[in-house]
Amino acid sequence: xxxxxxxxxxxxxxxxxxxxxxxxxxxxxxxxxxxxxxxxxxxxxxxxxxxxxxxxxxxxxxxxxxxxxxxxxxxxxxxxxxxxxxxxxxxxxxxxxxxxxxxxxxxxxxxxxxxxxxxxxxxxxxxxxxxxxxxxxxxxxxxxxxxxxxxxxxxxxxxxxxxxxxxxxxxxxxxxxxxxxxxxxxxxxxxxxxxxxxxxxxxxxxxxxxxxxxxxxxxxxxxxxxxxxxxxxxxxxxxxxxxxxxxxxxxxxxxxxxxxxxxxxxxxxxxxxxxxxxxxxxxxxxxxxxxxxxxxxxxxxxxxxxxxxxxxxxxxxxxxxxxxxxxxxxxxxxxxxxxxxxxxxxxxxxxxxxxxxxxxxxxxxxxxxxxxxxxxxxxxxxxxxxxxxxxxxxxxxxxxxxxxxxxxxxxxxxxxxxxxxx
Length: 422
What we know:
By secondary structure, this protein is mainly beta. It is 10% helix and 36% strand. A hairpin with a 7-residue loop joins strand 18 and strand 19.
């Protein structure tokens, strides 16, 4: 920074206004029929309940009957294929024992899984703005803006969560920027519009006390940071005293419009009777299969006449909860579609399948007395599969013992291995 530039610093321009609020003040925006005017400068989203014609009304005392249940059967080939797949993921050696394994008995257990999906749509609006650079303004001169639920949009694929933002037709208008009052620039708040600030090292004096001079007197030298001027160029506005308006980006005008937010959301209720606590229910989330019962409509109704009463009770509870929870009286949304599924699974419990067992023992003793155990470790991995005899693939044991004098045996190391599959 040279002296010529320093002489220009400090020139205050009263025509540059102070920076105003980022949100428009109350009454700044125009009123659009069918849309609420934000109060107190609040431009947050405002939800709109759907009209009565958009709300399906449930029919009283209506139920859904389930046809004949087709329970899948676990045959020997299916069980062997599952066993080979499991062994291949856990064992890198030969799978011949699993292929040649003889099944003496298969006792499948059937479990049911119920699922209800409710696909809803909600709409909200908020005022948005963007710098006006000469783009086309779709304002009220082209017609009246449609109500929130009459704005046409393309429906997405069902049962997938989607959020879409669209501009409401004929809701745009141009106004002077409220933040810079149409100037395109705002006064720098760090230097009060002067382009320079007081030097933080000499506090505006131009000189600094630096230790002791001659005859033990304090030295009063010129400040090397501001070159003795007492003020420095403002680093926030680069010495100009003003900044480009961050809202209109120097274009002086803003285009305001209403942005409509459409939210499609899929709400899921799932139930599996927990009759076997040892089987984790989360495993069902990874199981794929064909549902033997599917009921899809705008509104679905509880299942009746199914052999498993718990499924009927869960279906009635889920239908009542979704019909009441997603009604316009509770949540400003509408139900687009519902679908209920019913799956049947068959699986075979069995004894514990030991994949690997290892134990280690080190013991040392130099004099008559009890054995001193230094370390003992054991590992066990177990899985559950179909009934069948245990097949021992490999068993190895080692024992080393040494003794130099009468007394107890000195065991240096003992290791045993056991692999078993069923």
